[in-house]
Amino acid sequence: xxxxxxxxxxxxxxxxxxxxxxxxxxxxxxxxxxxxxxxxxxxxxxxxxxxxxxxxxxxxxxxxxxxxxxxxxxxxxxxxxxxxxxxxxxxxxxxxxxxxxxxxxxxxxxxxxxxxxxxxxxxxxxxxxxxxxxxxxxxxxxxxxxxxxxxxxxxxxxxxxxxxxxxxxxxxxxxxxxxxxxxxxxxxxxxxxxxxxxxxxxxxxxxxxxxxxxxxxxxxxxxxxxxxxxxxxxxxxxxxxxxxxxxxxxxxxxxxxxxxxxxxxxxxxxxxxxxxxxxxxxxxxxxxxxxxxxxxxxxxxxxxxxxxxxxxxxxxxxxxxxxxxxxxxxxxxxxxxxxxxxxxxxxxxxxxxxxxxxxxxxxxx
Length: 365
Fold this sequence. Notes:
Blueprint: E1 7-11, H1 16-32, E2 37-42, H2 48-54, E3 58-61, H3 73-96, E4 100-103, H4 110-118, E5 123-127, H5 134-139, E6 146-148, E7 158-159, H6 166-169, H7 173-184, E8 192-196, H8 203-218, E9 222-226, E10 240-243, H9 249-255, E11 258-261, H10 265-274, E12 278-280, H11 289-300, E13 303-305, H12 313-324, H13 327-338, H14 345-361
Parallel strand pairs: 1-2, 1-4, 2-3, 4-5, 5-6, 6-7, 8-9, 8-11, 9-10, 11-12, 12-13
Helix pairs in contact: 1-14, 3-4, 7-9, 8-12, 10-13
């Protein structure tokens, strides 16, 4: 056994897509060895300030330094700000006696990657998107410990699924469905459409559902809708349950027969793992990674793709009722999605991280 508990630092911040897999990995590391010390180093302005403490983990902040998309004066300030953030990250790593830094990308991760390199602490990166972000592209230049969800997103990366919450990784949708329907107050004799746009909602999906709702309800479809806390709250009505945020997504997946959603990497990984068919509406901004995230699922027959500007109330009323009432079609789509899912990735990745940390500490088991 090691002379002291292993110290794992998770570099993640900004969006739930970066933070959630880091916290899921933390849960798996604790399951492997409850004595492991875990701390998240994140940015000073993202969702990590709420998501990390709620899950029971320590959080240390460093300034998040976004890269301007346009050539402005801010571009000249990026590297001075990055140096200051790296200096603080270096102090954090020394304080934590870090044995390994594990990063899932995002601007908040880059200073910690760079600080770990200077301190000769091993850096492990996991890239979930089909197109790698800046922080992971930079780190891939100096660490050989590269893991990717999508083949080829970073040259030389080894395939590794995304760590999922245990409740989702072990979910039996059919067994949990009656309790899930009761939890949300949904009837048990109608198919359920789950609508969500990530942790903060999606205005396009909200508008489309609002317009389509009378038609969906009249077609005998119940709707469970996560609209996002920053968006106006819709009024509930029989068969329609709007929630600002769904705390237990495992229950939402169990209640649903079909989902309509954005195509973030975590969303795609979860829906595949639980075998829930989905209509993917990729976010139309960024570098197109959301469309690429959904593409393997769609090509395998586990979901449908619709462009953001095509996802209207009229389109939903035309496409959803015949699909959601076709149980045979949904079952085939669910099986196809599940064929791409990876329920064991969290445990597997935790074992990789533990080995790297033990090696750095210099003590075998």
